[in-house]
Amino acid sequence: MTIKISRGRGRPRRFDPEQAVATAQRLFHAQGYDAVSVADVTDALGINPPSLYAAFGNKAGLYARVLNRYNSTNAIPLRDLLRPDRPVAECLASVLEEAARHYAADPVTSGCMVLEGTRSNDADARDAACALQAAAESMIRNYVASRHPEEAERVTDFVATIMAGLSTKARNGQDLDRLLAIADIASMALAEALGD
Amino acid sequence: MTIKISRGRGRPRRFDPEQAVATAQRLFHAQGYDAVSVADVTDALGINPPSLYAAFGNKAGLYARVLNRYNSTNAIPLRDLLRPDRPVAECLASVLEEAARHYAADPVTSGCMVLEGTRSNDADARDAACALQAAAESMIRNYVASRHPEEAERVTDFVATIMAGLSTKARNGQDLDRLLAIADIASMALAEALGD
DNA sequence: ATATTTTTATAGTCATTACTACAAAAGTCC
DNA sequence: GGACTTTTGTAGTAATGACTATAAAAATAT
Q: Which residues neighbour B39 within 8 Å (Cβ) at sequence distance 6 or greater?
């Protein structure tokens, strides 16, 4: 029995767009933007292509919605982790640890959906993912700069590199313990670079 | 005027397979396996599809030849860098530095072709790239294990993570100086983890 | 010269892609 | 109940993907 959502007059939708975005998110995260066809999504939702295009415009439009959802529900909570009352190196270490945990949490949706999305061959999808990644990197850089302006660039580059590497390793099937060990070694370097 | 290579009797080839592999390597390295179509390759070579299929079997067959060529001419010379007469941390640092230099050497073919190839959506291409990557990682692990058996796994994981991250950053357009700075910070962690 | 061999160019096949025209269906509003 | 609105299902389109059947071309062997 399908739940019908009313949008005023007219024939009611047979699907909930929010749920559709959630389903699409699983597919895009699991397989990547390029590897997921519109047919994959419509099949998973049990709807026909026109319904999806009416709701989201096109494949990239759906992906944009998915990225927003990911960013507000599955992303690493940088705002909470980057604390002004704790050592910078310690907070960055917690970001890396949290990254390892997120990326290995579910083996079918391993890695970071945004970081993986920046490698798409579709320009629209790639740009959308790159924008989110740039925003996250800016946030880290600003945080480091507020306390260690000289080191902000290189430390941020290093953290971003580790996160990209962790996402890759997670998609390669590396288990949580090994990802955490990698994050630990990286955190030693951060402590040394920022003074502990 | 085209150079014709004789292969015994029969109509001569209009193209040199070695040169074809070199041209295909540029394309695959620049755009990735999935984004390069067979038509892209045949257009670049000025030949027709049947000629390419006669010489290489299929797209994945051509890619296998390209990977071999890359591995024997463009790869990081691990065998020379991993020296038994130098501190392990120092040698691994030189591997990371060399990686940074290789990945940023040419902006149109940035990053590591093997590491990027492991992300292909084509199973054959991905498996071929993964095999080479696994071999390189084994070489590093064996080297570390010969001197620091307890640390071999985590240190190798860390080095592999940094290399994957550096390749990503290089493809993102990061310049050589910043890649080298990242490699430097990572090397500090290696020195600490392995005892300097 | 003629037969044989190998590669070529032409012109396709077939599957899959993102996306859509159109009319029937299924509601709401008066 | 009838006009109106919105979504649905059917059945496409056009482009592009990897790959190939076929016969002519261009060489060598005898």
A: B49
